[in-house]
Description:
Order of helices and strands of chain B: EHEHEHEHEH
Distance between the termini of chain A: 94 Å
CATH topology of chain B: Rossmann fold
CATH architecture of the largest domain in chain A: 2-Layer Sandwich
Oligomer: heterodimer
Low-confidence stretches of chain A: 505-514
Low-confidence stretches of chain B: none
Number of domains of chain A: 3
Strand content of chain B: 15-25%
Structural class of chain A: alpha+beta
Number of strands of chain B: 5
Largest interface: A-B, 23 and 23 residues
Order of helices and strands of chain A: HHHHHEEEHEHEEHHEHEEHEEHEEE
Structural class of chain B: alpha/beta
CATH architecture of chain B: 3-Layer(aba) Sandwich
CATH class of chain B: Alpha Beta
Shape of chain B: globular
CATH superfamily of chain B: Response regulator
Largest sheet of chain A: 6 strands, antiparallel
Mean pLDDT of chain A: 81
Helix content of chain A: 55-70%
Amino acid sequence: MDQLPVEISQRIRHEARVAGMHDHAPSIEMVERRRLQLWSIMIIVMVAVGLAAIAVSGATDNVKWVTGQPLLLAGGVGALAVGFCVYAVEKEVHLHRLSRLLVDERILSNTMALQIQMNTALFNAGKALNSVMDLDDVLDAILANALDLLEGSGGSVMLLEDQAMLRVVAVRGRGIARDARVRLGESIVGRVAQSREPLLVPQVVSPADIGGVLDSETDIGGAMCVPLVNRGQLLGVLTLLAPKDDAFDEDDLSVLNLFAEPVAAATAKAGLYEAERANVAKLLESDRMKSQFVASVSHELRTPITSIRGAVAASRRTDDPGQREELLDVVDRQSGRLQTMVEEMLTAARMQENSNRSATQQLDLCALVRLTALDSHVAGRPVEIEIPAECSVRAEPEALRRVLTNLIENAHKYGSDPIRVAVQRADDQVVMSVIDRGPGVPPEERERIFERFYRTDPNGTKPGMGLGLAIVRGLVESCGGKVWVEDAPGGGAAFRVSLRASVGSDARSEAVHV
Amino acid sequence: MSDRPKILIVDDEPDVLLTLRMIFEAEGFDPLLAADGETALRRVDEELPDLVVLDIMMPVLDGWFVLAELGGRPTHPHVVVCSAKSGDEDRARARELGAAEYVTKPFEPDDLVTIMREVLARDRAHV
């Protein structure tokens, strides 16, 4: 294929030379002009010879008067005419050959241009895949190339979702709705996807029948649909629409089918890349949160250490037993704080390694709430409680106590007084709520706040390591329960823990203020 | 300046206030306390301390606010920032806002006292 144009152009040059055309690149038009000239001269010569013959036969006297040798003259004219004819015929043969060669060359170069265009389109599609790894961008670039190559008026790429639904993810041209959905097997596109056979859609078909892609007002000259299949797996359908007066043919369908293969590969690859990118983004976020955690931890450790060192330095400067006692209390409090932090970190680490269920037992949630509220009050975090006299749940008591302590601490840190703890029974569930009157939690953060290391206050103006609520969730889940946050009626945040109720619950409520 | 320089300790941690107060008293200073930025600014106006030992991370009005407020005045006491924030950008910001020194928590109390004496000995143009 590559050699043919060289051979043809050599032959064209040769024929042009023989035909008396000295232009190195004669065009078909030039050859035809030359042929016209040749035939015109020939006609003129023949007419001249004819006239001469008439003159010789009908007016011999006159001729004789002119030449004196009429027969000789006739013979000479005849020989000249024959010679010219031979010359003209030979030239005509070469010009004819040249003309055919030029037509061949034109067809060949057109085909090659088309091939190059197609290769370029495929290359661009590949390039789009390698340069823009965003799936939407890749599909858009691919669609644009296919339309360019096949001169379509519009088109779409639909991808398979949930194994039964096609969704338009890339659109070019008018009348096509992005995100339109077509069920597999329904309408033309859906059937192409199901049969996995490319289809040429004739002009007579209503655009609306093609499938969720078009509104019926769109004026098109038919369409082509090809399935996108990679490694035996259906990924979607590529659809091109023809302009109103320029329908597609079988050749176009073959080209589009050829095109579909790399498109499917590209789609599969971009899909993988997309998933990988999401994964990397998640890892980066996790890494960022861990860095933030290290910063939070170091900050949280610095404060009690400052107090402890201060207490030691101060006790060295005093002999007063009362002051020394006071300073020992500081050391005791602050070392206790350090211990709690270390335990929190260990609990979080253990939960990460071992997400098994705790050994639960039947316990009275209300008694546990009363005791924890009392401890909280002693620690300077007062709460109001609103609980039944008794309410049995299945849980691990130490885990549940920790859950409530963390939720109360959290409410004091981020919410405002009064902090309320309420217990209510609903069917076979018991819901314990910790409610504050603070600003509440924005909807987009309601899941994230339970992630390890996540902090709503990244600048660290509030103390904490971003572990408290993660520990809450881990412990609640280990007891087979659920925890979530919602807006409290009347404003503020309501953290709710639902646990499985045990037989013997009492729904009677009492209000106790601790 | 009297014999006992007035030191305003600003920190939201009661145990830090307690221990620093004892140390400063033993070292011959006259300590005053504030647990938040608002109280700190009020006590600066009322007591005219020679030096403020200022924590940064406090609820409501933080140390940055206090520092900026004091820095905007024609005369103000020396400020030694005492913070658990240890980043270079925090130090630079404190300097920009007019802090004389920046001490990172946890610190050696003797070192803090040395720094305070050194700052107090500086040209008292600020006061």
